[in-house]
Amino acid sequence: MNLGLGFLGWIIIGGLAGWIASKIKGTDAQQGIGLNILVGVVGGIIGGWLLGLLGVDVAGAGLVFSFLTCLLGAVILLTVVQLVRK
Length: 86
Description:
- This protein is mainly α.
- The protein has one domain.
- The chain has helices at residues 7-25, 33-53, 63-85.
- The mean pLDDT is 85.
- This is GlsB/YeaQ/YmgE family stress response membrane protein.
- InterPro entries: Transgly_assoc.
């Protein structure tokens, strides 16, 4: 899975997506910038994989679509983590 982003792009997009996902899921107070970046990057992998299963080409879709893919995956990841913790 490749969203067409370089290393710095993964950090920036992942950080923003992880931070917004943590705001959506109410976990921002528990996470620092490092964990937000990690959640966003892992979310990008999850989102890209899920969209790939649906036949969506995420590699050439652009920056906004890459961000939305990371955000979707990050929200899914945080939801799963919250369910496991309960």
